[in-house]
Amino acid sequence: xxxxxxxxxxxxxxxxxxxxxxxxxxxxxxxxxxxxxxxxxxxxxxxxxxxxxxxxxxxxxxxxxxxxxxxxxxxxxxxxxxxxxxxxxxxxxxxxxxxxxxxxxxxxxxxxxxxxxxxxxxxxxxxxxxxxxxxxxxxxxxxxxxxxxxxxxxxxxxxxxxxxxxxxxxxxxxxxxxxxxxxxxxxxxxxxxxxxxxxxxxxxxxxxxxxxxxxxxxxxxxxxxxxxxxxxxxxxxxxxxxxxxxxxxxxxxxxxxxxxxxxxxxxxxxxxxxxxxxxxxxxxxxxxxxxxxxxxxxxxxxxxxxxxxxxxxxxxxxxxxxxxxxxxxxxxxxxxxxxxxxxxxxxxxxxxxxxxxxxxxxxxxxxxxxxxxxxxxxxxxxxxxxxxxxxxxxxxxxxxxxxxxxxxx
Length: 409
Ligand SMILES: *Cc1c(COP(=O)(O)O)cnc(C)c1O
Description:
The protein has helices spanning about 1-15, 15-40, 60-70, 85-95, 115-120, 145-155, 175-190, 240-250, 270-300, 325-335, 390-405; strands spanning about 75-80, 100-105, 135, 160-165, 195-200, 220, 235-240, 300-305, 315-320, 355-360, 375, 385.
């Protein structure tokens, strides 16, 4: 174990500049959060919460105002009634789309758990079963296929243009805010009617600009990822145009009730607490990813992104090209976790995923991936998708343990 600790400590010295760059982003995003808390006058009484219908929940209202400030959006829906990011994306799609509408994904096939939602994989409750049409345009060379997109959207018959930023279980690169800005600008030259919807999972606070600021109409993410700061016990957020937030809230609750209901069941404080810590926790996750990238490349593995590449999300890929190393590494991440360190993850079938998946998540919150976690579908080229780290030090310790497992198999 000591030789691995030495290797990691020595490596750390060589990536000083990259690690320090993260501190500046953490500072700017912390200022954004602090400004929003102060502008909305977040107070101790906002920690109180409601039960039952959840009428007049001032804590819930202030959280949604704070989210709107941070994202520079007209409105927000931040709720524990969203089970997950997938659920928030689902409610948003069903809230906006009507029979015979067309949804067009311009970032290729969406995340695995959305396949049954859209109807890419058959399900009697999919959008397709309601006669919502789906089309997609693949990325080319990790960028948007502008010719195809402009040609398709200029007919002005598309209801939702869907963009997923983080790569999910694919091998493409994630989509940075500059590319997002450019494609929305180009789309708007020929199409002003479609709703641009962005899946922002894993990208929040990685840089200092978010999708609404570059023209997205609605933007969605999970609270057991970046913005929950490791404290939020569940939930997701949707931010964007007021009319869209209204449609989505009426699908989440009931037509006529919308945002006015939704008990917070003692969640207001952890949501605010988590958001306050989120810039710094995302910073720890980014530093863990940079260290992992540098060390694993040094050990001869292919990694994406490289340690000195610009980052769009908190995910680090290690491409093992070998099933055994993927499994050992993932098991090592579990063994290096704060919670359930004696559990040994095995590849298994997961609802919503096509291949068997191995998942390490020794987390306070079930399935939380802002906490150090690692997962990968069992298919070539056997890629580990690692993310999170509540603190950089726990991230580093997890990495050390994972390397030990592949070295000592
Ligand atoms: C995690 C993720 C989702 C789904 O989030 P869950 O909370 O796990 O349902 C959707 N899209 C992307 C890109 C993700 O990374």
